[in-house]
Amino acid sequence: MFKKQLIMLSLSLFIGMSTFAQKSELKAADKALKKKDYSGALSAISQAESLIANADAKNKAKFYFIKGMALYGNGSSYDVDAIAEALNEVMNIEKGKATSYSAKASQTLNNMAVKLKDEAYKNFKLANASLNADDYKKAANGYYDVYKLMATDTVSLYSSAYLNYFSKNYQKSIDHFQQLLDMNFNGSTTIYKATSIVNGEEVVYNSKKEMDNQVRLKFVENASVENTPSKVNDIIKYMALNYVGLGQNEKALTAIAKAREIAPDDFNLIINEANVYYEMGNNAKYTERVEEALAIEPNNAELHYNVGTLSMDIDVDKAEKHLLKAIELKPDYAEAYGNMGNLILKKIDAVQEEMDANAMNFAKYDQIKAEKMVPILKESLPYLEKSYELKPTDFAKTQLNSLYENLGMEKTVE
C-alpha cells in the first residue's frame, strides 16, 4: 500500500513537473513569437513537443497556435502543409469557437489562402498564354495549397485537379477528382450580377441581399441571378482523359461510358473515345465513333479526312466521299489531296493484273495500258500535284516523277 502511494506520488510529481515544463516552454515560445523571433519560438515549441500530449485543451491550442504562427513567420515563405496542420488543429481543439486562438488561426489561414490563390491565378493566366506544362503544374500546386489551408474551398481542389490534367500529371489529377467525387462535390454556383448605372460595367455581388440593396439605391440596374451548371460531368470527362493520358485504355473507356450517360452528345467525349479505340487498333469502332462525331460537326474537315483515310482499303466509295468533302471544307488540306490521288491509283491493281495476263501479247498489253491505265494516272495526277504544291515532301516528289514518266511526260520535279 505504501509502495503504491509512493508510485502515485511520483506520478503526480512527474505530471506536475511536465505541466510546469510545458508552461515554461510555451511562455518562452510566446515571448519569442511576439518579438518576431520565429526560429526562437520554433526552438521552444520543439522542446515542448513531447510534453504536449498530456496538456489541457487550452495549452494544446496555444501550442499549435504558436507553432503555426512561428512557421508562418512573416508570410513570405512557408511550409503550407505544416502551417495548415498546426492552425487547423487549433480550431479542431476549440471546435470552431471564436476564441482568441481559433479566430486568429482562421484569419491567418484565410490571409495565406488569399495570397496563394492570387499567385495560382497568375500562374494559371501565364500557363494559358504559354501552354507550358510546367506553368500549369505551378498553378495546380498553388490551388491545391489553397485547398489544404481551407478544406471548405472545394473549388480550389477542382481547379487543381483540372490543371493537373494540362500539366500532364494525370495520376494526381485523377486522385484529386476522385476526392471531389467521394465528397459528392457538385460545383454549381449562384452568381448575382447587375449593370452599373455610372459606367455601364458589370458588377458581381456575394449575395442577393447585397445586390438588391444596390438596385434599391439606384446604383445598378438589370439585376440577374445566374446558376452555373454542375461540374460532375466535367469531372468524369477529365477522369477519362487522364486515363487516356496514362495509356489505361480500358479504364478510359469505362469512364467515358459513364460520362456519356450524362452527356451522350458531348463532342470531345466521342472524339476521345474514338482515339482510345484507335490506340487499341480497333479501326471499326474508331470509324463508328468518328462518324457519330460527324453527325454533330458535319463540317469538320479533319474528321472527314480520318474516315476517308481509314476507309481506303475497305470501302472505296465511302473513302472518296469523305476525302472529297475534306478537300471541299479545307482547300489547302495537302494530306487529303494526297490520299485522294492514292485512292484513285488503287484502281490500277485490277488493270495491272489484266496487263500481266497479256504480257506476251504486246499489242493487247499496250492497248490495255492506253485505254485503262493512262486514264487512271491522269485522274490521280492533279490531286498528287496539288498535294506536292501544298506540302512538298520527298515521297510526293518521287511519286510525281514516277507518274510523269509513266505518262510519257517530259516533266520532272527537282
Explain the overall architecture:
The chain has 414 residues and is mostly helical. Among the domains are: 18-182, Serine Threonine Protein Phosphatase 5, Tetratricopeptide repeat (Alpha Horseshoe); 190-227. It has 19 helices and three strands. It has helices at residues 2-34, 38-48, 57-72, 80-93, 100-130, 133-149, 154-166, 170-182, 208-216, 232-246, 249-262, 267-279, 283-296, 301-310, 316-329, 334-345, 348-357, 362-390, 394-406, and strands at residues 190-196, 202-205, 220-227. The protein has a three-stranded antiparallel sheet, covered by helices on one side. Helix 1 packs parallel to helix 3. Residues 1-18 have low confidence and may be disordered.
Secondary structure layout plus pairing:
Elements lengths: L1 H33 L3 H11 L8 H16 L7 H14 L6 H31 L2 H17 L4 H13 L3 H13 L7 E7 L5 E4 L2 H9 L3 E8 L4 H15 L2 H14 L4 H13 L3 H14 L4 H10 L5 H14 L4 H12 L2 H10 L4 H29 L3 H13 L8
Antiparallel strand pairs: 1-2, 1-3
Helix pairs in contact: 1-2, 1-3, 2-3, 3-4, 3-5, 4-5, 5-6, 6-7, 7-8, 8-10, 10-11, 11-12, 12-13, 13-14, 14-15, 15-16, 16-18, 17-18, 18-19
